[in-house]
Design goal:
By secondary structure, the protein is an alpha+beta fold. It contains two helices and four strands. The strands form two sheets. It has a two-stranded antiparallel ribbon with strand order 1-4. Bound molecules: iron/sulfur cluster. Its cofactor is [3Fe-4S] cluster.
Length: 67
């Protein structure tokens, strides 16, 4: 089974909260509202939603790789 690894670039995050709203168990925001990844290897039941969150990020700040 493939492992999906999630990283996010807080330097380019636009504080839209979209990813946090969509997947609160995987993404959070720091005190400035910038993205923080809580779970870098979410379970397979979340993979589709993580990919959608990455596609939906307005600044393309979420990177998803499969290993
Ligand atoms: S969707 Fe993108 S811009 Fe919005 S909070 Fe998440 S990483 Fe930041």
């Amino acid at each position: 089974m493939s492992v999906l690894r999630v990283t996010a670039n807080s330097d380019t995050c636009a504080v839209s909260s979209l990813c946090v709203y969509r997947l609160p168990g995987v993404f959070d925001q720091d005190e400035d509202g910038l993205v923080v990844v809580l779970d870098e290897t979410p379970g397979s039941d979340l993979h589709d939603e993580v990919r959608r969150a990455a596609r939906g990020c307005p600044t393309k700040s979420i990177r998803v790789t499969e290993e």
